[in-house]
Fold this sequence. Notes:
By secondary structure, the chain is an alpha/beta fold. Helices cover 46% and strands 18% of the residues.
Amino acid sequence: MRGILLALMIASASVAPMADAQAQDFPHKPFTIIVPYPPASGPDLWARMLGPKLSEQFKQPVIVSNIGGAAGVQAGVNVLKAPADGYTMFMGDTSVLIVAPYLIKSMPYEPLKAFRPVALIGQLPYAIAVNAKTKMTTLQDLITAAKANPGKLYYGSSGYGSNHHITMEAFKQETGLQINHISYKGGAASVLSLLNGEVDISMTSPASLGANASSGAVNILAVTPGKRFPLLPDVPSISETVPGYDFTSEPGIVVAADVPQAIVDKLSEAIKHALTLPDIKAGFEQVGTIPKYGDAKEYAENLKLNAAKFDKAIKFANIQPE
């Protein structure tokens, strides 16, 4: 037993100097940000906006690599296969870090254990919208209509197990409403179904509604964060009608769990600076996002809080691996 303890003490003592040396030499080669979504998606655009700013600070190229499919699992596997030295970053969000284990039968890793948070980068809401022809203009109108017609209204989401699906199920759980779900392949298809009258309601991102909202074709009744969203100040939050309701998409950068803390700190500080730049703010806002920095500890707490919320809603909706 003494021999084992001695061996562990020697191993621990050797790891610290190695990590310090890695941090002192950091950075000395190009970076990669792996995005678990296709080009031109929101996460891809965030990565491509941040990449040049990190490159300027670190004096090293930053490459964005898109690896889609399998609820982000394949992208995560690629991150974990790379050396744990901080040069491979992962654009994380609720779907890939929290929801994926509920949708994939045999996950090759546990996201919240396999990855180490680096920095929260932004915030964007989801929204409940209706076709303007329904004459609903407030969330209370929708609640009244759903209560008067239990099981007769339909809502569309961007897919089974998507954040849009889960957050609407959470709304149903909090209100006791009986509203049927129809799953579509993506937010655009969901919004088109709303415009065509195939569904009465859509839970989607405000950015997906785009010109249809500004033209008056759809009415945005409420947004999901616990308070009004800065880019949509005239739209009430759901919590104004349903106290306590609070769901927000807050993406961030993560790395493999074994990356030394000193390197994580350097990455986090660089991201913090990038998010203060006016062109980043403008670029994020164009895709319906506000820059929001949180350090590694804050992002970890954020993920833990969201994990509890999503777990409750997923179990209520009985969402199972397909």
